[in-house]
Design goal:
There is one protein chain. The chain is of the alpha+beta class. It has two domains: 33-94 and 133-158, SH3 type barrels; 100-130, no CATH class. It contains three helices and six strands. A hairpin with a 6-residue loop joins strand 1 (39-44) and strand 2. Helix 2 packs antiparallel against helix 3 (115-130). The longest helix has 18 residues, at 2-19. It is elongated.
Length: 167
Amino acid sequence: MKTKWVILVLLLSFIVSVCAPPRYVPKPSQIGLNYRGAYIIIQRSKSDGRTVNGELIAVEPKEIIVLTGNEPNRRVVAISIDHVKKYKLKYAASTKFDWAIPVFSLFTISHGWYLFLTMPINIATTSLIAGSSRFNYREKDLPIDRLHMFARFPQGIPDGVDVNSLQ
């Protein structure tokens, strides 16, 4: 009888611990404290067709302002909205789950002869989840008029701010 209670307590504690959010999820009081803009990759359609990548500073009515380069070679680039062919916005770092594909596939050994049915399903679903880019937006997902929500200055560059001195 005592063993059943121990198993029940362990099972309940496991269930409760699974329901807790991960430690890296910010607390409600910490949301919105990041002052940097999202990382954006813009492919130009006109001019030279090159790509520009860096921190999204602001989206003005006629141009997108991006801070490119690393610390010693940083510069601000203004790209006309008319010259934007496509873009990709990364607003958070993705978690690498590639290790899960072989590990979870090995778990199907416990399925016995059903292994031949469950292993391909497990490999397919784990690969889809590991390869998902849920922290990215493309032009088809996020229209250019809503791009400002991920900028450092979502309401435009404030008066008195020199964009060339941004870090």
